[in-house]
């Protein structure tokens, strides 16, 4: 089993619903986006178009972050999900340097307030307990939801169904079928990390 995600670039129109729901669920600090959407413009006037590239932790089959972690804080589960054990993380940030996808963040302990000077909201007080100063964080593929038989929040919240979650090792899963049928590709395959996130071309 290898959980992964397929991102359909033909369906993504850059609404950032994935980024918003990810922030809401995980209460990531200001400026921290575990799910993000890169926007670029291609072509030459007047034939110009806007293109969007959603991104997250790639949950690589051969993760560089795990290899360099000196304490074993970064690890890969048997189902392919890459996580961080906060109790083991010493904040050395080797994993951040090794990650070629810029998918990890360090908590410098700066203000968690989204409304500076007004104090934390009741929601922030509850959710911020999961973030610790001096630790690294990243997308978890909503492992808590997955273990309950649910899809990651970004998948469930995508209005165009541009995100498909499933077992990439199961040829009968929707995710695996789409990768095969539409020539799904990985970002930077030359690096050998074998990402579990595939993109479907437009």
Automatic annotation (TrEMBL):
Q: So which domain of life are we looking at? A: Bacteria
The record, for PROSITE patterns, names:
4FE4S_FER_1 (PS00198), 4FE4S_FER_2 (PS51379)
Q: Where is the 4Fe-4S ferredoxin-type domain?
A: 3-32, 48-79, 80-109
Its lineage reads: Bacteria, Bacillati, Bacillota, Clostridia, Eubacteriales
Recorded GO molecular functions are: 4 iron, 4 sulfur cluster binding; metal ion binding
Q: Which InterPro entries match?
A: 4Fe4S_Fe-S-bd, 4Fe4S_Fe_S_CS, DsrO-like, ET_IronSulfur_Cluster-Binding
Q: What keywords were assigned to this record?
A: 4Fe-4S, Iron, Iron-sulfur, Metal-binding
Recorded source organism is Desulfosporosinus orientis (strain ATCC 19365 / DSM 765 / NCIMB 8382 / VKM B-1628 / Singapore I)
Q: What is this protein called?
A: Fe-S-cluster-containing hydrogenase subunit
């Amino acid at each position: 089993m290898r959980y992964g995600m397929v991102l359909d670039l033909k369906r993504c129109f850059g609404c950032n619903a994935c980024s918003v729901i990810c922030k809401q669920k995980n209460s990531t600090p200001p400026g921290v986006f575990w799910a993000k959407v890169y926007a670029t413009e291609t072509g030459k006037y007047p034939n110009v178009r806007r293109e969007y590239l959603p991104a997250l932790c790639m949950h690589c089959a051969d993760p560089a972050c795990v290899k360099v972690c000196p304490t074993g804080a970064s690890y890969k589960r048997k189902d392919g999900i890459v996580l961080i054990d906060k109790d083991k993380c010493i904040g050395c940030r080797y994993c951040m340097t090794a990650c070629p996808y810029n998918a990890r963040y360090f908590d410098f302990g700066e203000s968690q307030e989204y409304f500076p000077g007004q104090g934390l909201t009741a929601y922030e007080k509850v959710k911020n307990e999961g973030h610790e100063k001096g630790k690294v964080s990243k997308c978890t593929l909503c492992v808590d939801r997955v273990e309950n038989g649910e899809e990651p929040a970004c998948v469930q919240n995508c209005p165009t169904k541009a995100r498909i979650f499933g077992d990439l090792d199961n040829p009968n899963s929707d995710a695996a079928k789409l990768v095969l049928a539409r020539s799904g590709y990985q970002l930077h395959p030359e690096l050998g990390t074998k990402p579990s996130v595939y993109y479907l071309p437009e």
